[in-house]
Specification:
The chain is of the alpha/beta class and about 280 residues long. The chain has helices at about 35-40, 80-85, 105-110, 125-135, 160-165, 195-200, 215-230, 260-265, 270-275, and strands at about 10-20, 25-30, 50-55, 55-60, 70-75, 95-100, 115-120, 145-150, 175-180, 190, 210-215, 235-240, 255, 260, 265-270. Helix content is about 25%, strand content about 30%. Bound molecules: flavin-adenine dinucleotide and FE2/S2 (inorganic) cluster.
Length: about 280
């Protein structure tokens, strides 16, 4: 950690991708201005970082790129003051990036097992990082089947569409995309809610780990399906997005009972969450 952990190294916006027709979801590909800062930014899938704009403020976001990718990627929904200011910036603008923070998805536990990813809406970000990481030819053989069920309200709200279309045809991953309503579109071909599609796909739970990210309503209806499929609470992992201020366990803004989401999380097993007060 640098001497002043709140000091954000400068990064340059290299590319901005508008992800949906409403234009409230944008992906920012960032490059560190100083090579040494890139070297220090060592992360694994599941971690997050703070983006900052001078004179505006800062906010935490899950890292959507994989560690091996040269640019650091974040997908941001425009919801308030910071995210609106970020959405107004274009390629070439300089912003700050401090982190990485938090824990990672349980890569050691996942080794040798099938990995089942269940995601909805724009929460897919750190799961994209995970999929790119696991599918790297250097480590793909360390994991069993890769099953990913990813849905959104409408086809246009799915993130990373070009990449998903390419992944659908690859033999090393079983990617099932869906939309609550396909709105007459021919892609994706599955119409339905993520928990229902999960039930149809019915991935085996015997030697598997499930990673779940999505809006609270999706998570609520996904758990019973995972249980029905035989997933035990210690086989299911979720990433939380509680409000944060410092990101480094100092301010107490993000805690759930004795746990700091920024330091002990954001990734928790369902077994851990069952022991905590239910205010997550
Ligand atoms: C670990 C972590 C990872 C995250 N990853 C992403 C990501 O990949 N992409 C992304 O778009 N967002 C992500 N978020 C949420 C993001 O941090 C907030 O959307 C952002 O802080 C809002 O800042 P703002 O100034 O634009 O909004 P504000 O002006 O602060 O608030 C605008 C509205 O958003 C609500 N809001 C603010 N923060 C949160 C939050 N944490 N959870 C729910 N509602 C909130 C407020 O209640 C208000 O209604 C993540 C949050 C955490 C803690
Ligand atoms: S955000 Fe400050 S303690 Fe977690």
């Amino acid at each position: 950690m640098p001497a002043n952990p709140y000091l954000p190294p400068p990064v340059r916006i290299e590319k901005v991708t508008v992800e949906n027709a409403a234009r409230d979801l944008k992906t920012f590909d960032l490059a560190f201005v100083n090579e040494a800062d890139r070297g220090r930014f060592s992360f694994l899938p599941g971690q997050f970082a703070f983006l900052s704009i001078m004179g505006v403020g800062e906010a935490p976001f899950g890292i959507a790129s994989a560690p091996s990718e040269p640019l650091v990627k974040f997908t941001v929904k425009r919801v308030g003051s910071f995210t609106t200011a970020l959405h107004e910036l274009d390629s070439g603008a300089l912003i700050g990036l401090r982190g990485p923070y938090g824990n990672t998805y349980p890569l050691d536990l996942m080794s040798g097992k099938d990995v089942v990813i269940v995601s909805g809406g724009f929460s897919f970000t750190t799961l994209r990082s995970t999929l790119v990481h696991l599918r790297d030819p250097a480590r793909r053989q360390d994991f069993g089947k890769l099953v990913c069920i990813y849905g959104a309200r409408s086809p246009g709200e799915l993130l990373y569409k070009d990449e998903l279309r390419a992944w659908e045809t690859r033999p090393d991953i079983s990617l099932v995309l869906c939309a609550d309503s396909v709105c007459g579109e021919t892609w994706p071909c599955n119409e339905g809610l993520v928990p229902n599609i999960l039930k149809q796909v019915s991935p085996a739970s015997g030697n598997a780990v499930a990673l779940v990210c999505g809006p609270p309503i999706m998570i609520r209806y996904t758990h019973p399906v995972l249980e029905e499929l035989g997933f035990k609470p210690e086989q299911v992992f979720l990433s939380l997005e509680n409000r944060m201020k410092c990101g480094i366990g100092k301010c107490g803004r993000c805690n759930i009972g004795p746990k700091y989401v920024c330091k002990d999380g954001p990734v928790f097993s369902y077994a851990e969450l069952l022991k905590l007060p239910s205010d997550y």
